[in-house]
Amino acid sequence: MNDKSHDTRVWMALMKDVLWHSRGWHQREQMQAYMHNAIYLAVDLAQPADLQQLVLEWPHPSTGDITKIAYTRDDANGVADRQATVSVGKYLTRHFPTLRDNIIRDIAARYVMGTFKFVHTMREMLEVIERGPNSCMGKTADNFRCNGLHPYEAYDPEHGWHMAVYVEADGRYTGRALCNADTFVRTYRASDSTYSSEDDRMRVWLEEQGYQKVSSWEGQRLKYIAVSNNDCGFLAPYLDGAYQGVIVSSGSLLICDEDDGDAEYECSNQNGDASEVNRRSCEDCGDRVSEDDGYWVNRDEATLVCSSCCDDHYVHAYGRNSEQYYIHSNDAVCVGDEYYHENYISDNGIVVLEDGEYCDIDDAVYIESNGEHYRDDDERICYTVDGEHELKDNCVLLENDEYCLTDDAWQCEHSGDWYANSDCDPVTTACGKSIHEDYADEYETQAELFVEQPVVWTPHERGPVEATTKEGE
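Request: output the structure for the sequence above.
Response:
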């Protein structure tokens, strides 16, 4: 009880005293019955929506049925001595709107009319199974393929098995839970449907007895009872809970995770039989693995590996003929978000770049001059006047700012500009220079300034005298 709930109880006591002295009918109700204990349990956990109205109604156990609450709606009904009756859960829901449904259910489950008890013999357990709440095991022995035995007989008390039972006043079994030591996996409550629901009454009672709900029977043992007319050869009940595997060990059946490498059978059938666990060894680590839980790898899918090895060493990749299958990560290359077998990259439109990286062929260009692929956004690549991709290092920039392969261009010795061979041919000047034709006239004018004259010999000189005169003089 916290401080707030303590204060609420104090106010309830004060209101009760005021109503005792102010309303005769309320004094009568207080004298006839005490306030239902479920109200105090709820007050300790949450505040009522209207405390004054709650006390005025004086909710108390219904006569002869503690599962119901009787209360007086208002003063008029109080004077007339008329009380309404409703279930504990419904009443708490109306007055405690902040209280969670599961808490209300647990409080209501405390107020029942029957009897809880434990049974510890196989005879008693079979009687409850056959006469109690419906389930896949809730049938007589002749409904199973077990030589006239009931699969439930595997839950032999010698291995700690017993049962919690709820017995109605008329002797009907309407609740049960299989137990081992101080644990249980699930509860059953009789209903009109084919199968039973969980029994909140039973769960609350078991927890009050110190029992704990667990997710499976892992680690517990079943009695090994041989039979001849089913496939597994022994009695196999349907195992409730997360794990349904068993290992034949030391004359008994050890319950385990069916995905455990040592599990031999899975008790998930409703006919008293068990299915053999189909297992093989992982080709990588050697651990036992179910064929249903492992991964078949390589193109022929003939190699089985466990999920751990597959996660650590394999990738789902595109291989031969663009087929997808698991391959070892050592044989895979990653391009974008996909994996590819390195031996079949061409089957999948992947190329190797000049730097050894891989790229989708749609994102690459081929440089024929050096026989290599490059990414299409590589800054070293240019587009030539001939409509080809080339390396800039193998090209020159023409006078019109286009690129051309160096071997397919020539340079004007006058301007220094480059021209494509396919665009024009150079003009050779008198002095042997290669120039663009735009500059040819300039070189012809310069050539006319000088002409070659004949050699003139004079008698006073030993050798020829070269006379050069201007034309026309």
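The first strand starts at residue 60 and ends at 62.
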